[in-house]
Amino acid sequence: MTIDMIRERLRGEEYAFLRSNEHLNKNIILLGLGGSHAYGTAVEGSDIDIRGCALNSPCEILLGEDFEQVCHIPTDTVVYSFNKLINLLTGCNPNTIELLGLKEEQYIYLSDTGRKLIGNRKLFLSKQAVFTFGGYADDQLRRLDNKSARSADKSIMEEHILRSLKRMTANEFGLDDCQLSLYTDTSEKPDFEREIFIDIDLKHYPVRDLESVLSKLGTIIRDYSKTGKRNRKAIAHGKLSKHMMHLIRLYMMCSDILEKEEIITCREKEHSLLMDIRNGKYLDDEGQPVPEFYELVDEYKRRCDYAAENTSLPEKPDIKRIREFKAAVNEKIIREN
């Protein structure tokens, strides 16, 4: 479906809520494509996802209220309030950051304020992308099946699980490798060549906090072990390869942000690779990811790790400038009404 066909469809009764909803209509400053149409990976029959932003009303601004977002499930449309979108962008939320990196023709509507928001997109870029995009990538990775993998493949998956565990202990509990060391080593279990081990060196550490750490470690490992059942359903509906594609796409976007300080949502240069993944090139005869796919994941993960260590982006976005931009937009709304 072309962008012109999508524009025409949005003029129909199916999307009448965009014109009738009290929070939308003239308050909309941005409407753009989401999902596969935004990434350039749509196939025949792909759903149309619409994402956007609408200004808060003068009353909401003055009273400190917020409608947050309008979700229209039948059309898979989400329009965020300006105030909520700014907060999500400040946290480098992948689902909203990608809205600032569409190609010009992928924006169905842009007001002057919408263009200013796009023009200020670099305000929201920071090293937080390592954790937000990395977290989303981990979620995608956990969807991939490791139940029927050979022992060598399980060793690769153990390395992926290890990275998730290390990320969690560092980011959520502030524990370094000297305090809590996680690593893989030769296993005595018949089903593993290598497995994850832990060395703990903690002094005067709250027991309740340690219990939380160990509980979270167990949760992550169980999440990976449950992927087999979910993936049988995903394979039946042809969705596993789509999850695999999105995993690689997230790493690509993260690398662009860290290396180039750019948001590139439509992956034209990598289109062939992404479509190969989506079309099942990296699945075996049983519908499981082949070892070459995990090697591809490792390659893109290493690129992201290197970019994270060498990026010139700040640790956190410039909150002062973001607040000034947000205040200027809201002040303009009050003055004009």
Which terms would index this structure?
single chain, globular, 7 strands, 337 residues, two-stranded antiparallel sheet, alpha+beta
Brief summary:
The protein has 337 residues and is of the alpha+beta class. It is 53% helix and 12% strand.
What kind of assembly state do the chains in view correspond to? single chain
What is the residue-mean pLDDT, rounded to a whole number?
A: 88
Secondary-structure element series: HHEHEHEEHHEHHHEEHHHHHH
> What can be said about the biggest beta sheet?
5 strands, mixed
DSSP summary, beta strand count: 7
Strand coverage percent:
5-15%
What separation lies between the terminal Cα atoms?
39 Å
**Structural class, judged by helices and strands?**
alpha+beta
| Total number of domains | 2
- What are the low-pLDDT stretches, counting only 5+ consecutive residues below 50? 145-152, 228-232
Shape verdict: globular
Order of strands in the sheet with the most strands?
Answer: 3-4-2-1-5
Q: Roughly how many Å is the radius of gyration?
A: 22 Å
Number of helices: 15
| Percent of residues in helices | 40-55%
